[in-house]
Amino acid sequence: MLSLIHPPPLLKSTSVRGAARHAMDSMRAVLVPWLLVTVLVTGAWTQPHSGDGEDQAFPSYGEPLVPRVERSEGGLRPLYLFARSFLRAVQPNAFPGDLLARVMKNGTADEDVPELVRYEAGYLVCFLLAVLYLLFLPITGAALLWRHCHPRGAAADPPSPARPRWNPGDLGVAGALILTTLLLIIGVILAFASNSRTRAGVRPALLHLEVNLGALEGNLAAVPQEIESVLEQYSIPKAAISRSIEEMDDTVGETIIARLQSPFQEALAAFSTAVGDSSRTSETLLSMKEIRGSLKERQIELQYNLTNLKASLENLTEVCPGCETDADYSETESVEYWLQSIPPDDEFRHHVKESNLTFLRIRRLCSDQLAPTIEDLLSELNHTQVLLRNSSQGFPSLLSLRRAVTDLRASVRRAGGPLDHYDHARWAVGVTLCFVLLVTAVLLLAAVSVGLPLLFNPAVYSRCPHARLERTALWMFQICILLMCAFSWLYIIMVFITLFLGGNAHTLLCQSFTSGEIFPFLDKQEDLFTSLLNHSTPIPLRSARIFRGCQRGESLFLSMDMDQTFDLEKFLDPAKYFTGLNETLRDVSVSAEGLKLLSDGGREALLTYQGIDLESYPYDAMTQLLGKPVVKQNLLDLANELEEKAQNEAVDTKAALEEVAGRARLLHAQTLLQSADAANMSESVKTLKIISQSYGANVNTTLRRFNLTQTLLDLQVPLISANVSRRTLESGEQQLLRYLAWARRTILEDVLGCGWLTRSVDNIYTAVCLNVVDPWNGFWLSLGWCCAFLVPAVFLSLYVTLRLPPHPTAQLQASAACTGYDDPDISLKKKPYDEKEGESHRSEEKPKSNIYMTLSELGDFND
Are 495 and 137 in contact (CB under 8 A)? Predict the structure, then answer.
């Protein structure tokens, strides 16, 4: 198509060799842009399908597909198919790949001309036929014009009355002329339609080329950016893995605590029980010590007072055998030994708190021991990202293709304006020629409509002689002949130029692309694949395989055999990136050595408490002693009796008895206090007895459970740390596997996919070949159609003009038959009148007309 900007100078050359060289330059100007488009299309990289993992939200890649270009062939498809068939007959040679390669590399050389001539032999034949046509019709038209201006002597003899005006051959001539006229009109209509269709497709084709080349350029530029973006998405699993690694120490600590929480709480509960026993033991012993002191003190005073009371009663001649103590509380067992042996409560509470803090310190222990490992793991993880980026440096580059697309797009932009301008000029010339053809065809149709009836019935227009239709038909035929001969050279020149350009555009571009002949040629253009071939191992590129693979939905990575220079499976191998992490995690170890849930002090305190031997306390004897009454006789009853006796005694005796009764009441109050203390001490003894029955077992339970928990701690910590590290590694592997699987799918299916490639190919092919080249070829075919039917139209029209010579006598006879006057001018000037006047006038005029008519004229008239 770009050859329209610089039309090939083949017709202007005077030598075959020079014409061939110019034609080669023209084809080069036309073919190079299309080859670039095809190379870029077949080598383009695509965008894409989104992938996402279970826990990761990776971005999606892929540009929206460009809108599909609609075909504009409509009802002209048969015309386009006929044009393609004609071009296959004109140029049946194979695609000249080697010739084009030499021309594109070194330019046109003399040794290439013979091969070019052989390839363009069909167009040379068409050129010779065009030259013959160019010479024949104008010369014929000039001869007819000379004959019309310089007739040879007298006119032809009028037809004899004895023979008919037409013969059977005229029927064939008439039919052929009618058919030729109709076909000529059809050809003009098709020429108008295809010319307009071509003009309507050029500007949209330039726009579609710009859009699709822009899409190609954008996608090619996006490939390295998207590869880089895919690599940057490693930060997503890296962040998740880093978070797992950083939380591994807390996870180990929390897991250990969770796993040992139940046995430790049981041990701590047993410890608390033992501490409770110790606390209650201390409280009970202290209480017993205080009560024992009170009892002993009160016992002495009470015994002294009772002795005095008994002596006073004896002085009053009263006997009180029960006025003495029954229980001797001075005999109660001392608890001083046990009080001194039992550990203090504060010490026990301190050991309980210490055990709890020690258990909670497991987190800190794990954090301190795992800190170096975590640092090594994070460093190794950063190294895997560096390794991933370094491994991607060997990925094949598409820079050369992007540059080619950029250059081609710039060329299209530069050539778009001039190309549209020249196509507008071509369209204007085509419209002008089609309009002249249309006028000629319409004039010929009018001449056929008016003249052919005269060929078979000369008197057909006898009733309207004023129209002079015979002479009009003759002149229309003559004008048609002159127009056809005068403009035929323009038609044939236009036909050959458009045939040469459109035919080569179709065969070298469109047909070679659809047949696949262009692909071997593209395989030899190493400069277009420089960035792909710049490897120690060259890639045997096959354009056909690339394009067919894209049509089947394959990835360009596979169809372009990039796996021969870049091992994607090795690049995305998880073992490559997890080897260092595995080796680092293999040495993970957490030890609980030195961590004692029950300190030595706590254990010693428990053992000390257990060894105070509460069982040795005389619980039964003390219970029996404390259970005796304080005084054998009820002193309150004694006081009441003395007061009753005092009422019957003399004053002195009465006073003495009342005084003794008062002392008895006071002693009774003391006995009540003593009884209360004895009861309290008895309860303490019972409590202590209960404690003595379980405190040893509680201490044993505490020690046993702490020993069990400590054993579990020592055994479980390494196992738990190994298990947590293994789970962390598995989680990291899953994160990395999801990322690598997503990266592989994204690179193959999205970044290097072919989803938009076939759309771009269809758009470029439709916009250029179907919407421009096909209408272009339809135009020259329609115009050539008209040129072909101009030849029979000229000769058939010439035959009809010779069969319809002007004949004045016949015109006079037709005029007389029509009006009744010899002079047709009189009949034309005659005004209409009423019927009666017409009849009388005709009756008067008939003899006059008969007088002036000869016998021969009369015979002709009757005929």
Answer: no
pLDDT tier, 472 (very low <50, low <70, confident <90, very high otherwise) = confident
Supply 116's token pair. Answer: 């070019």
Residue 585 structure tokens: 């995690």
Yes or no: say if 751 and 48 are a contact pair by the CB < 8 Å rule.
yes
Q: Is the pLDDT of residue 823 over 60?
A: no
Q: Which tokens belong to 704?
A: 């046993």
**Quick check: helix, strand or coil at residue 631?**
strand
Closest CA to 433 of 783, 187, 131, 793: 783
How crowded is the C-beta side of 364, counted as CA atoms within 13 Å? 6
Q: Is residue 824's pLDDT more than 50?
A: no
How far is it, in rounded angstroms, from Cα 157 to Cα 150?
18
**Has residue 397 got a pLDDT over 60?**
yes
- Let me know if 427 is exposed, middle or buried by CB neighbors in 10 A (0-12, 13-18, 19+): middle
User: How far apart are the C-alpha atoms of 790 and 783, rounded to whole Å?
Assistant: 11
Asked whether 853 and 822 are in contact (CB, 8 A), the reply is: yes
235-265 pLDDT, tens digit each: 888 888 888 888 888 888 888 888 888 999 9
pLDDT at residue 804 in the model: 66
Return d(Cα 677, Cα 511) in angstroms, integer.
126
| Residue-averaged pLDDT of the chain | 76
The b-or-e profile of 680-719 (16+ CB within 10 A means b, else e) is: bbbebbebbbebbeebbebbebbbebbeebbebbeebbee
* Mean pLDDT computed over 104-115: 70
Residue 15 class from Cβ within 10 Å (0-12 exposed, 13-18 middle, 19+ buried)? exposed
Of 44 and 594, more confident:
594
d(CA 159, CA 311): 204
Distance separating alpha carbons of residues 845 and 628, to the nearest angstrom: 192
With tokens 């998880």, the residue in question is: 574
Could you give the 3-state DSSP secondary structure of residue 515?
helix
189 is written with which tokens?
């209509």
Q: Concatenate the DSSP letters of all residues of 24-49 into one string.
A: HHHHHHHHHHHHHHHHHHHH------
Are 350 and 221 in contact, with CB atoms under 8 Å apart? no
Phi first, then psi, for residue 289 (nearest 5°) are: -65, -45
Closest by CA position to 754, among listed 621, 559, 469, 607: 559
Q: What is the pTM of this model?
A: 0.63
pLDDT level of residue 56 (50, 70, 90 thresholds): low
DSSP 297-332: HHHHHHHHHHHHHHHHHHHTT---TT-SBS--GGGS
